[in-house]
Amino acid sequence: MSPAVAEETVLTPAAWWESAVIYQVYPRSFADGDGDGVGDLAGLTARLPYIAALGVDGIWMTPFQPSPQVDQGYDVSDYCGVDPLFGTMEQFDALLELAHSLGLRVLLDVVPNHCSSEHPLFQAALAAGPGSPEREMFHFVHGPGGDTPPNNWQSVFGGRAWSRSNPSSETDLDWYLHLFSAGQPDWNWRNPAVGDYFDGVLRFWFDKGVDGLRIDVAHALFKAEGLPDSPYEGGVVDGLRSNPQVSDQEEVHEVYRRWRTLAEQYEPHRLLVGEVNLEPARAARYTRRDEMQQAFAFAFVKLGWDPEAWAAVGNELEAARQLHGATPTWALENHDIVRSVTRFGGGELGTLRARAALVALLGLPGPAYLYQGQELGLPEADVPLAARVDPMWARGGVCRDGARIPLPWTEDPALSHGFSLTEANGEPWLPVPAGWGGHAVELQEQDPGSSLALVRAALDLRRKLWGDGVFTADDGGIWRVEDGGLLVCERSENFLVAVAMGTDPVKLPPGTVLLSAAPLAEDGWLQPNNAAWVLRG
Ligand code: GLC
User: Fold this and answer.
1) Whose CA is nearest to atom 4 of ligand 1?
2) Which domains are assigned to the chain?
3) Which of 191, 418, 419, 478 could connect to 490 by a Cys-Cys bridge, CB 3.0–4.6 Å?
């Protein structure tokens, strides 16, 4: 390490986000303040004390801005408003104020890759016709004729990534690009007017006091010049691989440099966290010093119960950190992926493993995100076919509804297990499965062995370890698998995380166990599917 770097490391105090744990709220399914069956801002505001009591540092709210709700709000028709489905701007202001007074930061979702086809600028582009400057805001392209789109790109949700702008017209032969559903046209970031427009969106929320933004599909804003065919079949931006035609273009980094500068014009500096669905080495380039502060470690989010795979991805992330200074941002769940209890085997086994994985996650070096319901150990629900609303499912992809079921607050099924906060009890927007009340917050609050109690204890201890200097922002992660399937991540000389991923009890490395996901059956030994934080002796 050069003296200059060493000096900088010593003098720069850790920013709040380096140690932060953020709780992801999917407002539709968190709490329903008006009883219409869809969660809203009033419901979330009423339940903020619950989130603060978890011991997290803030919340990330998925979109609540005006939207036709084709993709549950990821099709935004007004970036600077509140959809009446969720409430009013006054309610948002009140939410922000209460969150801050409870010590919670508030991050919002910004969706810069695409908007809703109902967005006024897309509507203006449709009306203005082929060749107009209005169409330059999006990717309108003449097809070769007939039913053949301009290139072979496929939508992430399934089906082709192109729709005719005006299928019945004989003069408007344009197609428009949508990497997701037809209701989500992609912005053309090669037009500087798009960047200027989004500067305004960022400023709007930052001026209000919003603490940061999660950036949706952050790696896909720029497409290769000329929109050439892709060599890949199937989904175009997801899949943890750089797709040289469709995403991860060099120009996109300029956007995040500009946004970082903008975020640092505010005090305190605002946080940018990216949904960068690329392999670790490419994703880390988005969190270089002058770009975003965080990007989710997606390679990790998708792992099964496999110690070799965890160690390999962990070491890849560590290599990327050493190269680019980008500490991984950990998550096991979000609103797009199968709940970890189910991913790790379901039932009691899945529950044990999900608890162990969560304990591991919270001990790793770097910030972490929890998804609502993860603290309750919710499994993925099997949503009946007729009740499914996910556009990804509708277009032939997987169904994400099972991770989006309303949260159970009470054991009693009345008012959809307490999801509705008023006497009104509209049908919840996704059906609540039988037995959901068994996971209820009120039950877990009384049970010292519950997932909820474990999460609170882990977060409390994590905060203390940061305070005591056992955890620092300079910690790294050296991963290995020991005999018997014991996964170890050495965070520093003082501390390691161990997860028993094999079938037999395994001996822990020497040290003091500070926390374990399940009680230890024997001192110094870890039963299968348990995890521990070890202060090394
Ligand atoms: C992101 C969101 C997902 C959404 C997609 C399109 O992946 O997390 O829910 O469908 O972007 O906006």
Assistant:
1) 74
2) 13-114+192-454 (3.20.20.80), 120-177 (3.90.400.10)
3) 478
